[in-house]
């Protein structure tokens, strides 16, 4: 089954063609980062306008690169939510019209479930059930994953998402938007033990997160150290990152132990983080857990994960009504 995936929930216009839910025939991601960079974050109205300009070209490119013809596409899967309403509307409306025109099924996908399924596009997919840490710019959660379409929530962030904390700290340090990748890179040149930032475990045996405290602690440090800060950016980045990564890896391993699962996964944009990948691997090994992560280029937003999720829903008999609308929040 050949599925065209479309993803436009935030600032990437993406399209992909995936065979049988697992083989990526093409995956095209057009990032709007340079457009939003001067504003220090995503400007929703600009994002939807740019999606409108890009969508037809990106879909055409993904079909052409896949080596398939339009009439060989069996179904279309598109992100229906959560995300920016205007941006979602562009991709989801495009998908519905495409499906209607070809007379094929259209399936609306939850973006977070898309991230969760991205781990099956790597070379080492986990067996069910497993415990997944989803870390992105908008969400930080732990799920007990029972199948490709069944996710039992175990905990969520009570304030900022991990990626959001990276982006806000990068902004405080004058490193621009988005901040995750640049902090990841600078932290490698710094010493994580020079400046200790607080770890917020909340209840150590529960799985909720809070990242607003560490963000405030970094801000306070910057305000109180004036000119010294310019020479300490790699150490601040490393100290901040270590505190975030400690909490994420601790909670993921605890959650797997609580569920009696031997397999854990890390997915979402922040799963690209070098230190998080290392730390989860070393902490999991201490408890004899297997770690599964998507390749770095499938951690951030992409449409292959949406097409793959669509495949599993269609296999289980689901289809979305063409009158369905997008949604901005998790439901
Ligand atoms: O999953 P994603 O592409 O979009 C959302 O669904 O939110 O995640 C984007 C987030 C941004 O906050 C970005 O700063 C963060 O992922 N990110 C990283 C890295 N690469 C991207 N955070 C830490 N380290 C990275 N290497
Ligand atoms: Zn995402």
Give a quick account of the main beta sheet: strands, pairing sense, barrel closure.
5 strands, mixed
Reading off the top of the CATH hierarchy, the class of the largest domain is best stated as Alpha Beta
Beta-strand residue fraction = 15-25%
How much helical structure, as a percent, in the residues?
40-55%
For the largest sheet, list the strands in their spatial order.
3-2-1-4-5
Mean pLDDT level: 97
Oligomer: single chain
At the fourth CATH level, what is the homologous superfamily of the largest domain? ATPase, nucleotide binding domain
Class computed from helices, strands and strand pairing: alpha/beta
The stretches of 5 or more residues where confidence is low (pLDDT under 50) are none
Shape by Cα distribution: globular
Number of helices: 10
CATH topology of the largest domain: Nucleotidyltransferase, domain 5
What is the rounded Rg? 20 Å
- Small ligands present: 5'-O-[(R)-(carboxyoxy)(hydroxy)phosphoryl]adenosine, zinc ion
Beta-strand segment tally: 10
